[in-house]
Structure formats: C-alpha cells, structure tokens
TrEMBL record:
Coiled coil: none annotated. PROSITE patterns: RESPONSE_REGULATORY. It comes from Streptomyces mimosae. This is Response regulator. Keywords: Phosphoprotein. Residues 96-119 are annotated as: Disordered. Residues 7-139 form the Response regulatory domain.
Length: 165
C-alpha cells in the first residue's frame, strides 16, 4: 500500500486475533501480512520486510520465544521491533508467567525487562488503540534511526568526491 505508515507482520495461531489486529492496523493505514506461527513468520519476514512484528507466545511448530531467538540471530531482522501480544502474560506480574519469570530480553537472565529480545508486551485481551499506538511509535522510531544513519553518510559524500581520481 503506497504511503502506508509502516509494514507490520502479525504472527498468531488464532485466526480471530490475526484478523482483529490486521483490521485495526489497516484502518490506520498500515500494510499488514499475517503468519500463523513462528515458522511461517520466518518464511515471510525477508520477503515482506516489516517495520514491526507482533507476536504471540504460545504457537505450534515454533513458539514466540523461539521466533524471537531466530529473528535476533539474523543480522537482517535483529533490528525489527518485536511486540509480544499474548494471553500467557500476567499483566500484574511484569515479566512473569504462572511458572515463574520468563526472559523477555534475550539476555539469558530470568525476569529481565524487555529490551534485547522483546521490545514491548501487551496482555490479551488488549485495547486495539494501545496496540496501534505502540506500532506507530516503533515505526516512527525506526524512521528516525534511518535518518540518523543516512545523514552522516550524506555529509561525507562531498569529501569522498574530492578524493576520487
């Protein structure tokens, strides 16, 4: 979709949740692709090149945390913000589940806050407006990072031209 505010890959084994997230993001102008589990996410991510990925925790074939591990190991996808949207998250316990704290960060430390692996966590049921707001924020932050990286290169361009034979 030309002029879309961003591209989002929605990964959830529930068709109802995929559709709910898709409709709310598309109403805000986002281009959306869906995947039913982590394995399908990994098959589609390089072709679609999303700005943000929303991800369920409990899925068949490859679960959310396994998907996070694979995305963070790949230099082409490690920069993509990951928004965990899961019923397995207890909103009263910031990083935990019923069987103890989980490592959301990819740091290997149980109970570590989001940052290295998962960028944000939303508990199901969630407010669609909150999800859309987080996706907008991640897309805007991603565009700012690209501008910051490109600007220094543009400033170097005239100097490189003078050195060329």
């Amino acid at each position: 979709m030309p002029g879309a505010p961003g591209r989002v890959l929605v990964v959830d084994d529930s068709q109802v949740i995929r559709q709910l997230i898709r409709v709310n993001l598309e109403l805000d102008g986002f281009e959306v692709m869906t995947a039913c589990d982590g394995a399908e996410c990994l098959e589609r991510v390089h072709r679609f090149r999303p700005d943000v990925i929303t991800l369920d925790l409990a899925m068949p074939r490859l679960d959310g945390l396994g998907t996070v591990d694979q995305l963070r190991l790949d230099r082409r996808t490690r920069h993509i913000p990951l928004l965990l949207v899961s019923a397995s998250v207890d909103p009263r316990r910031p990083w935990g589940a019923d069987d103890g704290p989980l490592d959301w960060s990819g740091s290997g430390e149980a109970g570590a806050p989001p940052g290295g692996g998962i960028d944000a966590v939303l508990s199901k049921p969630f407010e669609p407006a909150e999800l859309v707001g987080l996706v907008k924020r991640f897309c805007a932050e991603g565009r700012r990072r690209v501008v910051q990286l490109v600007k220094p290169l543009a400033e170097c361009a005239p100097a490189s031209r003078t050195l060329a034979p």
